[in-house]
Specification:
alpha+beta; 3 helices; 9 strands
């Protein structure tokens, strides 16, 4: 991953569009599979709406992602609202809940990937030639990785998930180890 090309592109007078991609990675112990779903909410010149980046195909899927900004020093708790018009997400939830009852994708990893249109694979463009620039599978903004904390709502139209940072989960401690005086001699030696 290299952020230098994207920051260079953003600083141009007429930069190419920012492309937002998402991956949803299931955990075998929680969900009974290690399936990775790749999707984007935009459109593409291809009739099927796929965007290919870094050799991976991302399917067009109506999605709204909000709340990624840091507010007053707090870790973001983004919301992901996904279309359920075709029942696709409900079908995934039913399959996952067969392994762990009531799981509703809790613990699945959601990665937000942002790159620029000029770095997309050439197959996205007519004639398999990117008129905006040279494909670069490493040019991206810093990835934002979250875990699904809970399903907030599900109906015929949408399914809403609340995401949390990996260290913002209940019962998870950083650095996942207890600090004791035996391991860290300076603990407990401060005087007033």
């Amino acid at each position: 991953m290299s952020t230098a090309p994207v920051f260079s592109e953003v600083q141009k007078i007429n930069p190419s569009a920012i492309i937002e991609l998402f991956t949803l990675q299931l955990d075998n112990s929680l969900h009974g599979a290690t399936t990775t779903y790749r999707f984007h909410s935009g459109s593409n010149l291809n009739a099927n709406g796929e965007i290919v980046w870094a050799g991976n195909a991302y399917q067009r899927f109506p999605i709204e992602a909000t709340g990624f900004a840091y507010q007053r020093g707090q870790i973001p708790r983004p919301k992901l609202i996904v279309s359920n018009a075709l029942g696709t997400i409900s079908a995934i939830l039913l399959t996952v809940n067969q392994t762990t009852t009531g799981n509703d994708l809790t613990g699945a990893t959601v990665t937000r990937i942002r790159t620029m249109a000029r770095f997309l694979d050439a197959v996205n463009f007519p004639g398999s030639s990117n008129p905006l620039g040279t494909p670069d599978p490493t040019a991206e903004f810093k990835r934002q990785i979250y875990v699904i904390d809970r399903k907030a709502a599900e109906n015929r139209e949408v399914v809403e998930f609340e995401l949390a940072g990996a260290i913002d989960m209940a019962g998870v401690r950083a650095p996942k180890r207890q600090c004791t005086r035996a391991l860290f001699p300076s603990i407990g030696t401060f005087t007033q």
